[in-house]
Amino acid sequence: MINAPISDQEFALFQRLIYKIAGIHLSDAKKVLLVGRLGKRLKALRLESFGEYYRILASGNHPDELQTMVDLLTTNETYFFREPKHFDYLRDEILLKYRETAPFRIWSAASSTGEEPYTLAMMLAEYLPSNDWQVFGSDISTQVLAKARKGHYPMDRNEGIPPAFLKKYCLKGVRSQEGTFLISSQLRQKVSFSQINLTQPIDPAIGEFQVIFLRNVMIYFDLETKTKVINNLLPRLMPGGHLFIGHSETLSGIPTPLKTVRPTIYRKP
Length: 269
Description:
This protein is 40% helix and 18% strand. The chain is α/β, with parallel strands linked by helices and 269 residues long.
């Protein structure tokens, strides 16, 4: 493997590039992570330096490679039923009190490899069984969206899924698929995915949602980018709808009409 070092100047170029594209503030402490993830591309492309790789990306002539770079630097860990108090609130205060006939729509705005949107789908199937419902998942990374659409996971990823849900909504792999599980087609057909950059204006054609989960993504943004993202999402949240953010995140400093109903849970008037 090519063990190309990266200079401070080269790292600064990548910091500015990923901020420009995805709004992500890559701290100096992330230099080792960048070298580890992008070093694979230097090897694959037979390049001798990160400077060469940057010039390829900055030329504008290789959009597929630019997307690969984004995929490698934005892939984050996720798992089923992460931060379970959010799902308790969703069940008790929203789903079990829902009395309307309109389809119930939830947007998982940083869906990664799909664990969050499929968790939401299990909740909707269980607690709104007689209602029409839809889950929409989005991410900036095409790589993770391809995995999410398959809904196929190693068996050790099922931690956190209640046993009854695991039995009801997941199919255990056999023979060549042993050691894996597949989200049931009943759920997969009601979950759709699309690539969306949250820092850019969002197409109104995606519609409006009663609930938006925007969790564990704003930790990578500065205040200016957080404000831009919230302002992009708010028109997609129905009046009376709820926004969930990660437990380590805050909307402090962001001018917004949202009202706090619980820590990290907000409601649009």
